[in-house]
Amino acid sequence: MIPVSEALAKVTALATLMPTETVPLTEANGRVLAEPVVATRNQPPFPASAMDGYAVRQADVRSGATLDVVGEAPAGRAWTGTIASGQALRIFTGAVVPEGADMVVIQENVTRDGARITITDADSHGDNIRPAGGDFKPGDRIEAPRRLAPGDVALAAAMNVPLLRVRRRPVVAILATGDELVMPGEAPRADQIIASNSFGLKGMLEAAGAEVRMLPIARDTESSLRTAFELATGADLVVTIGGASVGDHDLVGKVAGDLGMERSFYKVAMRPGKPLMAGRLNGAAMVGLPGNPVSAMVCGTIFLLPLVRAMLGLDAGPAPRTQATLACDIAANGPREHYMRAIVENGVVTPFRRQDSALLTVLASANALLVRPVADGPRSAGETVEVVAI
Ligand SMILES: Nc1nc2c(c(=O)[nH]1)N[C@H]1C(S)=C(S)[C@@H](COP(=O)(O)OP(=O)(O)OC[C@H]3O[C@@H](n4cnc5c(N)ncnc54)[C@H](O)[C@@H]3O)O[C@H]1N2
Ligand code: MOO
H or E segment at 254? Predict the structure, then answer.
């Protein structure tokens, strides 16, 4: 058994950086930017009105002052004259503020009578003008690498960059194994259960930016496993589920080895997740997850997410931890780092009483993993511990 930190380093060392591809803005959200986006224009490109009202000279703005309305400027239709003293231009949000004007008086602060306005309230918070280039200027950048959030996509669009260079999504083949498994919706025999892990992992990996291929469930025979591994050809990462332990039917390690897997490690000092394996199989990274549903999902959080991040060129450090205050006493930990399913509320963490790695109801109710270091002593309510959000 190797420590979790060492296993993580070995897993992320299996990553190959994905090549880049070009996508339109409509498909860019959530993708990882591979090359910076560089603005070639000012935004706004002109001094723009921030309000509906009247563009005027600030020096003319006094309560009771009357001004002549000399024209109108809606957004998208500039008025090309110059505002002189005593004049006002009817203006709308987003329109070009004309030469001469250095303030927009909001329409709520004037009364209008034909072509004249009277200022009823001269108190203004600011000039209501957005200066040219106030948002961004030529040369301003969205740096890479970066996972594009909706705000980034909007910014790239505003920069008039319609196509973005992003990392190709790593293709992950998920291979569930076991004679006891049937797919959701099928009719299980009395001695069978429903395959669940692949679905949880698919969601987790897709949210991380991967493209997931679900392979048919492999039976606990060497030939079925071999066929399933063949179907994984072309994937950047092959994730197997189950068959990783020491039983007579735990054949994943053997078959992968027969097919040429160069094993990086097998077994991690971690709970749940001890029988984790990883290596390289025909040019792809391979991670063998334990079958217990919670073990598979916890290993997904701790190892697969950093691996996918590394493949996308992002920081591949360990899952971020924060501190929380223990709500109750907990017993000493053993020789494996323990990732206890827990609920964090207002900075206080409560681990679930039942920690069996088969309990999906507990995992689904949890929002955090309470991390117990190897050989950590008993801890009392009120002490500070580390948690990973899930
Ligand atoms: N003698 C020992 N037995 C076990 C050990 C050990 O050290 N010595 N380790 C235990 C630990 S810890 C784990 S974790 C499991 C992992 O075993 P496997 O990876 O070989 O997984 P399976 O035996 O195939 O399955 C375990 C469990 O999970 C269910 N399962 C499997 N795949 C799925 C799936 N896709 N969806 C839902 N459920 C799944 C399976 O039916 C079993 O109940 O080994 C312990 N044993
Ligand atoms: O290590 Mo196993 O993954 O406890 O269930």
Answer: helix 252-258
Q: What is the ipTM of this complex?
A: 0.95
User: Which CATH number does 321-389 carry?
Assistant: 2.40.340.10
Which ligand has its closest atom nearest to the C-alpha of 298?
2
CATH superfamily of 4-17+169-311: MoaB/Mog-like domain (3.40.980.10)
**Tell me: the pLDDT tens digits for 158-189?**
999 999 999 999 999 999 999 999 999 999 99
For ligand 2, say whether the CB of 274 is within 6 Å of any of its atoms: yes
> How far is 142 from 164, CA to CA, in rounded Å?
11
Residue 350 pairs in a beta bridge with 343
State the fold for domain 21-42+143-166.
Answer: Molybdopterin biosynthesis moea protein, domain 2 (3.90.105)
Per-residue model confidence as pLDDT tens digits over 142-158: 999 999 999 999 999 99
Closest CA to 170 of 17, 323, 65: 17
191 lines ligand 1 (CB under 6 A): no
Q: Which of 250, 357, 363 to mutate to test the pocket of ligand 2 (most atoms within 8 A of CB)?
A: 357
